[in-house]
Amino acid sequence: WDGNGATAWTIGTTSPHAGTYRADSADGSEGNLTSDDINLSGVGSAVFDFWYLLGTGTDAGDIILYFFDGTVYDQIVDLGGGTEGSWTEYNVASLNSQYFISNFRVRVASVLTGAENVHIDDVLVTSGVGVSLSDSMTLTDSLLKFAGKPLAESLNLVDSVQKATGTQLSD
């Protein structure tokens, strides 16, 4: 996750949903957090799932989830104004086939003021071919990947998935 450019979101370690890290946005560090391209071309089905935590005072329009369809970012849901202070799961059990493209992306956009803040964690896109990639973020060159595991462990995980499934993962 690098915003396909720079992002003002930060990496947090206090009370992530799972693992060691979470992505944080607050007044002064808001904007777009955009995933790297996710190759969903040729899949028969796909599921999207993630967890988010709204801080006090988050209003409608403060945090919006988008999916990229190859041309534009489509608004999926406005998460602002919901339950505050506890982790909440958001799930799309069956992604629309318009997203089965080689450069599918997920974007979380935040517009926050004052003490408002939001946190996301455990982002998961699972394809119908049985391979899932979780927490694939690169906010900085040194950010850990795959649910807080060091890059070397992530590469071992990718190798294990490829060997177990006979599937070749691509960028």
Determine the N-to-C terminus distance: 13 Å
Could you tell me the mean pLDDT? 79
Helices and strands, in order, run as EEEEEEEEEEH
For the secondary structure, the number of strands is 10
Residues in helix, %? under 10%
Which residue ranges are poorly predicted, with pLDDT under 50 across at least 5 consecutive positions?
130-162
Structural class: mainly beta
Query: What is the radius of gyration computed over CA atoms, rounded to a whole number of angstroms?
Result: 16 Å
Topology:
Elements (H helix, E strand, L loop, with lengths): L9 E3 L9 E5 L4 E4 L11 E9 L8 E6 L4 E6 L9 E5 L12 E6 L6 E11 L4 E3 L16 H15 L6
Antiparallel strand pairs: 1-2, 2-9, 3-8, 4-7, 4-9, 5-6, 5-8, 9-10
Protein model, in words:
The chain is built from one helix and ten strands; from the N terminus they run ββββββββββα. With 171 residues, it is mainly β.
